[in-house]
Amino acid sequence: MPAQQTASDATLQTRVLAQIRADIVACALLPNQRLTLETLRERYGAGFSPIREALMQLAAEGLVQLEQNKGFRVAGVSRESLYDLMQARIEIDGIALRWSIDNGGVDWEADLIAAFHRLSRHSKLRRSRPGKLSGEWAKEHRAFHHALVAACNSPTILAIRENLFDKAERYVALSILSKSPPRNDVAEHEQIMEAALARNVGRAIAASREHIQRTADKVAKSLENHFEFSKLPGSSVTARESRISLAG
Amino acid sequence: MPAQQTASDATLQTRVLAQIRADIVACALLPNQRLTLETLRERYGAGFSPIREALMQLAAEGLVQLEQNKGFRVAGVSRESLYDLMQARIEIDGIALRWSIDNGGVDWEADLIAAFHRLSRHSKLRRSRPGKLSGEWAKEHRAFHHALVAACNSPTILAIRENLFDKAERYVALSILSKSPPRNDVAEHEQIMEAALARNVGRAIAASREHIQRTADKVAKSLENHFEFSKLPGSSVTARESRISLAG
DNA sequence: GGTCAACGGATTTTCGAAAATCGTCTTGCG
DNA sequence: CGCAAGACGATTTTCGAAAATCCGTTGACC
């Protein structure tokens, strides 16, 4: 069993898709950055077909933009789309949370508590050491929010939620890249969890809304403070290509 | 200006994508039908690449399913996924409607009224003549529902809504294919519109919920009455490949 | 008779080259 | 000098063939 890669299903296309998506979400590929096929071909070691197919799928998900005969770009960011995204997340997560509380059984409760425990531990580690563990933390954070809504029993809503979460995580990664320290939101997560476990739908949704709203405001603020995003590590992107416009 | 095709943006991929999506939504390609690349190549007159790219995008949208090394199929249907879809539509359309009522101005009102007028006229034509105009009607029906939420001012929610609408329309097309006469729901649409124009959010959302719920029930019933779906016009699909299972 | 491995056909997946397209620069003309 | 037409370079888009994979089947061996 060659356990070498994190997520290599089988086909090259699947692997490339996962890698590019991860790189975009983690802002290893910056917003608005041009995605030349030749460059991607070198970077991911694949032919044109798998890469183009992966990019098409990401275009459908909204993580990359495609212009006719002009190629692909990482989706741009703006204050408008940030708040649009976060507002939608509030609603969608609210729905998923409501249904999850309605349907969730003991397993759901147990998984949720376990996920919170892992998250809180990783949050402490994250605060003590430098920002090298943010990958680990992001994983636990994602797992916790997934556990919250895991019992909602609606593949449609869950798929939508997952997609919005990806996009939100990208904004958070961008905020961290701009030297903004991550905020300590363990207490917020605990409040959501406790309300959910108490089967208090209204309180849980309100707490979730607050959580997302605060994240949105924090991200918006930290991006405003760093209007010029020219030289970021590990990318030969020109200023023009990766400039982040908060205006439109 | 060669106005020959309905929707031919520019690239072959875009055209193929629109055609396949339309064919799936209209059930010209039946649920569960296998999509051999060779067959699609003949049917749409294109190479492998544009077709595969289009299918990848449709896979991301959820209209086709992709199995590793086993190719593509039109997404299957089931009672569970029908109700999952419709339940999600109720919620998403509710959100979009609420925001649209909050934000909509006079233009929104005017467009909505105009869309309803066209819809009601086409509904009468549709009842008088045989089912040859259902394509026209579907277009107006789609336009009306879009006009309802057009002012919601959230690209994210609108994109999600559009996708769910496509999937719902496919179920309705399937229902019509099973010789089930379309129901006369002009009154329902009028109720939604009037509540929206009166800025009565609660009543509008309730009417919308009722409308979707009734459509779901109607579709579910007409599909149950036609368990065997083997020989449908214009397709050389074997019974095994296109059988519609309402069980799972 | 039953089980397992290897073979063959069909299809997917991947590749790299050819064709088409766009933006830009240059050139020629008014 | 200004402007339009044409050509060049870079990149996308498309194509068909080659490689890889899967499934069903045959055949051999226990």
Task: Describe this entry's structure for a reader.
The structure is a homodimer of 248-residue chains. The longest helix of chain A is centred in the middle third of the chain and has 25 residues, at 79-103. The first copy, chain A, is globular, with a radius of gyration of 19 Å. The model of chain A is unreliable at 1-7 and 227-239 (pLDDT under 50). Chain A folds into two domains: 12-76, Arc Repressor Mutant, subunit A (Orthogonal Bundle); 79-224, GntR ligand-binding domain-like (Four Helix Bundle (Hemerythrin (Met), subunit A), Up-down Bundle), CATH 1.20.120. The first copy, chain A, has ten helices and three strands; from the N terminus they run αβααββααααααα. With 248 residues, chain A is mostly helical. The first copy, chain A, has helices at 12-25, 37-44, 48-61, 79-103, 106-128, 134-149, 155-177, 186-197, 201-224, 239-242; strands at 34-35, 64-67, 71-74.
